[in-house]
Amino acid sequence: MISKDLLVEVVESQKDDLNKKLLGLERTELEDYSLLQSHALIISGIRRCGKSTLLVQLLMKQFPQAFYMNFEDPRLYGFALADFQKLDILIEELDDKTIFFDEIQVVNGWERYVRQKLDQGLSNLVITGSNASLLSRELGTKLTGRHVTRELFPFSYAQFCQFEDLKKSPESTRDYMSLGGFPEYLKSKRQELLHQLLDDILLRDIAVRYRVRDVKSLQNLAIYLISNVAKPVSGNNLRKTLEIKATSTVMEYFSYLEESWLFFFVSKFSYSQRKQLVNPKKVYAIDTGLVTANTRSFSGDDGRRFENMVFLHFRRSYSEIYYFSEKGECDFVVFDRKGLVALVQVCWELNMDNIKRELDGLWEAMRFFDQKEALLVTFSQEDQFVQDGYAIKVLPFYQLPV
C-alpha cells in the first residue's frame, strides 16, 4: 500500500522532472496521434525504441496539464490495485482528466482499473510499457476491444539522418544499415547496449513471462534468426538444426519472438490460408543495428541486411506484407485494407550476373497481380525498365519516399 502523501510527492516530482527533460528528436509519429475518450491509446513497440520519450513529448506538446505517472519509480514499489483509488482522488482535482501511464505493466491487475476508467467515460488514457503483456493478444481480451494500439519502431532512415545530422545519400544509407535506429545506442555507439537489449528481451520479456524452461534453446534460436535475416525458415528444419525437441516448441518460440517485436515472419503469398501456414516464412529483425551487433556469421553479406532495412521501411506503414515465389521471386507484396499497394524487389547492386533473375521475378509477380508498375530498390543505382506495358522503377534506398 502507498500513502496518499507519497503519491502526491511522486506525482509532483515526476512532473518537475518532465519539465527539465531534454526530449531529443521529436518523433514525426506525434502528428498522427489522437485520443478517443472511449478507448485507451496503447503505444507499443520493442524495448528502448523511444516509447517513454514519445509519451512525454505527446504530453508536453498537446496535454501539458494531464496527469502523468511512471510506475517504475522506486518509490512506487509495492503499488497495488487498491492504490488506484488514491490516484483517482488526485486525478479528480485536475481540470484535464487526460491520464498518461508509463510502464503500467508492473502493477498486477492494471487492466481492471483502465477498463473501469473507460467504462466511466471520465478520462482519456495513454499507456506505454515494455513488457510483452502490453503487446500480446491477451490485451484484447482484458480490455474487450476498448483500446487502440499504435506501433512505434526505432528511428527510421529519415529520423536517423536528422538525429545524426547527415544528408540522405549512399554513405548515410550504409551508416544506417550498420548502426540502426535505437536512440540510446546512437548516442554512445556502444555495442554492449545492443547485446544487453537482446538479452533483456529474451530473458525478461519472453523467458520469464512465458515460463520458458529451455532458455538456452531460445537464445540459440534468436541468434540463428538474427544471423539469417531475409532467409526462409521453417519450424521443422530449425528443430533439426538446433536440436530442439519438438517443432511445436520452435513455433511457440516464433510467436514469442514476434510478440516481443524482435522479429517479423513474412509468409509466402497464397490465396490459400493453409498454404501460407505450411510454406517457409522469411525472417526479418526489428533493427539492422541489432543484427550487426549480435550476428555470428554475416561475413560481409550486405545484401541481406539491406533487404531487412527495406522491409522495415515498408513495415512501418503497412502490416500486411508477403513474399511472392513461383518460378521466380519477388521480395515484398505489400497490401493495405483496400488491396495491393506495391510490388517491391530488393537488390544491393544490379549487375550482369543478377539483373535477369531480379527483373524476371518482378515481371512474373506483376503479371500475376496485373500490376502495371513495380519498384526495385538498390543501394545506389537508379534506372527504369519497360516491357509489354509493365514498368519497373529502380530507386536507391535513400530516395524512397517517407
Automatic annotation (TrEMBL):
**Molecular-function GO terms, alphabetical:** ATP binding
Matches recorded under SUPFAM superfamilies: P-loop containing nucleoside triphosphate hydrolases
Keywords attached to this Swiss-Prot or TrEMBL record, sorted alphabetically, are: ATP-binding, Nucleotide-binding
Domain DUF4143, by residue range, is 204-348
- Provide an example Pfam family for this protein: DUF4143
Using the record's annotation, list all stretches that form the AAA domain.
38-161
Q: Which InterPro entries does the annotation name?
A: AAA_14, DUF4143, P-loop_NTPase
- Tell me which PANTHER family the record gives: AAA+ ATPASE DOMAIN-CONTAINING PROTEIN (PTHR33295:SF8), ATPASE (PTHR33295)
The identity of this protein, by name, is ATP-binding protein
**Source organism:** Mongoliitalea lutea
